[in-house]
Specification:
This protein is α/β, with parallel strands linked by helices. The chain has 18 helices and 26 strands. Helix 9 packs antiparallel against helix 16. It is globular. Bound molecules: 5-amino-5-deoxy-1-O-phosphono-D-mannitol.
């Protein structure tokens, strides 16, 4: 959501911080700000809007210094404007704070601080922190931060600087990701490794309750009692070009086109063609343990939840194990049946989604074993889960998830195959599935070649106001995902439905103005979906169909046709998702929308 970056070292901080903010802009982007120690004290610049607004302001009115902190905001408390942008200052403007997360007892603390004479300028919960630190400051910044944070309820990743301690950045984490970057004689703090990847790949991930104190001579990690902690230094294996657009007009398009490689990367070294199974060392479980669970619960949000639905179908279909899928945000607040015999699979691209993380912790609290299917290495879900599968899709910057979806489904297929082979799926059946999986990267590449034709179709629909996406079986979740992609980046209202459910209500919407996307590959429910297509045509609806072969039954019934290669039923959603991503992308671009940074959205939703 919001993003933090901080720097201390010999170089000028402003360009480094602006560069870091630009790389974080995908996380949240309604305002931004910087605090620099300029030799006399804290000097700030803030601007509503994109980072480019802040950059223009800093060009017109530069600030020079070699230590600073910066923030890109996604509003929670208070409108996205100048006063609410971070950094937030104390009364004397000697302390500057940037903050990701939510201070839940912010109103009560604010009242108490106002009663003590503090004057607030913003509507943010963050400003409470700067005043609290001011109130507790007694010559040592980290001690003041610790004391202030001990009064706070909620979540935070913060970075703090002070005029009275001008060579120091103090950072702290509880529930909102933060890492320390170690350069040559210079140190960074960041909420996301992409902010600092151009300068270092050596990082220390902070855990909840950790504080980092960075100065010109080094860094210290301490706990809330100020006792020193020893932490491992991790090496990031992402390259800089992985977080750049590489000639594509948008990250989303680049990421769609990466899918032949990313799906291959998810499978790499994990398929065992000779025995028709998969090898998944990261599960940290023996075969006996894998067989010991009574039920599987998969939890996730958004696109990852759509992957979860496909995972349910895969695991039940292949392994005949009972699976339930829960929205992470709902699971936490009801009373689901979770025991020590439950395997909880947690799916998250970012590994930081607050609802998903909380659902995983709740499942673990109830005794379940948690497996993470995660993209971002070192993320909180990856670190706190009991094992899992990294999808190895590389950084996903576009807010609309694309390559993570195909890789999540691929990872779920690997898991389902492994479990199924343990539970009686024959070697021959396993080999058949492995063969189909191995073809997927080339089949995705084949679909990508049809991008120009999909762009032409998009031209016809750029001005519509509604869309319906229909699919059956494995492609019902693909329909949900297609609709989500379109609505989040084009702002066209779109709904996904199981195709047969249409006649129980949504059919009332069908007329000549309603485009209906059917996912209709030649699978086991093809005949059924043909009937649904006829039902739409009978009401003058406009049909765009994803098909896998020429079908006489559809002659004259399709207004537009997009061809996908044939595969076995279970992999059709991976192939179908690619043209649906492209369709959404081109429609959004033709409507003039900012596809990489859609309004109101953030890449990683780290608040509940
Ligand atoms: O990082 P996560 O996979 O946990 O994120 C979950 C959702 O927030 C995410 O998939 C969201 O729905 C995307 N905008 C979808 O494109």
């Amino acid at each position: 959501m919001c993003g933090i970056v901080g720097y201390v070292g010999p170089r000028l901080a402003t360009p480094l911080l602006l560069e870091g903010l630009k790389r974080l802009e995908y996380r949240g982007y309604d305002s931004a700000g910087i605090a620099i120690m300029n030799g006399n004290g804290v000097e700030t610049r803030k601007a509503p809007g994109k980072i480019s607004e802040l950059e223009a302001l800093m060009t017109a009115s530069p600030v020079h210094g070699t230590l600073g902190i910066a923030h890109t905001r996604w509003a929670t408390h208070g409108a996205p404007n100048f006063v609410n942008a971070h950094p937030q200052l104390d009364c004397e403007e000697r302390i500057a704070v940037v903050h990701n997360g939510i201070i839940e007892n912010g109103s009560a603390l604010r009242q108490a601080l106002e009663d003590l004479g503090h004057t607030f300028r913003s509507d943010t919960d963050t400003e409470v922190l700067s005043h609290l630190i001011e109130e507790t400051y007694d010559g040592n910044l980290e001690e003041a931060v610790i004391e202030a944070l001990s009064k706070v309820e909620g979540t935070y990743g913060i970075a703090v600087v002070s005029t009275d301690d001008p060579n120091k950045i103090v950072a702290a984490r509880k529930g909102s990701p933060l890492l320390v970057g170690l350069g040559e004689g210079e140190y960074f703090i960041a909420s996301d490794v992409s902010a600092i990847l151009a300068h270092t790949r050596q990082v220390i991930y902070l855990d909840d309750g950790d504080l980092a104190v960075l100065d010109r001579d080094g860094y210290r990690i301490i706990d809330m009692n100020a006792s020193p902690l020893t932490k491992d230094v991790a090496s990031i294996d992402w390259d800089l070009d992985m977080i750049e657009r590489g000639g594509f007009p948008h990250f989303m398009l680049k990421e769609i086109f990466e899918q032949p490689d990313t799906v291959k990367n998810t499978m790499r070294g994990r398929l065992l063609p000779e025995t028709g199974t998969a090898k998944l060392g990261g599960l940290n479980m023996t075969s006996e343990e894998l067989l010991s669970f009574d039920n599987i619960l998969i939890t996730a949000c958004g696109t990852s939840w759509h992957s979860a639905l496909i995972g349910e179908f895969l695991i039940e279909d292949l392994a005949r194990s009972p699976v339930e899928v829960e929205y992470a945000s709902e699971m936490r607040y009801r009373n689901p049946i979770i025991t020590e015999k439950t395997l909880c699979i947690v799916i998250s691209q970012s590994g930081e989604t607050a609802d998903t993380l909380a659902a995983m912790r709740e499942a673990q609290r109830r005794g379940a074993r948690a497996l993470g299917i995660v993209n971002v290495v070192g993320s909180t879900i990856a670190r706190e889960s009991d094992g899992g599968i990294y999808i190895h899709a590389g950084p996903e910057i576009g807010v609309a998830s694309t390559k993570a979806f195909s890789s999540q489904v691929t990872a779920l297929a690997l898991f389902a195959l492994k479990l199924a082979r343990l539970r009686g799926l024959t070697e021959l059946e396993g080999k058949h599935i492995v063969e189909a999986m191995q073809k997927l990267p080339d089949q995705i590449a084949e679909i990508l070649e049809t991008a120009p034709a999909i762009e032409e179709i998009a031209e016809q629909f750029k001005d519509v106001t509604n869309f319906l996406y229909l699919g059956r079986g494995y492609n019902f979740p693909a329909a949900l995902e297609g609709a989500l992609k379109l609505k989040e980046i084009s702002y066209i209202h779109a709904e996904g439905y199981p195709a047969a459910e249409m006649k129980h209500g949504p059919i009332a919407l069908i007329d000549e103005n309603m485009p209906v996307v059917f996912i209709a590959p030649h699978d086991s429910v093809f005949d059924k979906i043909v009937s649904n297509i006829h039902e739409v045509k009978a009401r003058s609806g406009c049909v765009i169909a994803l098909t896998s072969r020429s079908e006489p039954a559809l002659a004259g019934k399709l207004d537009y046709e997009i061809r996908i290669p044939e595969t076995i039923d279970m992999f059709t959603p991976i192939l179908a998702s690619v043209p649906l991503q492209l369709l959404a992308y081109y429609i959004a671009v033709k409507r003039g929308a900012n596809v990489d940074q859609p309004r109101n959205l953030a890449k990683s939703v780290t608040v509940e």
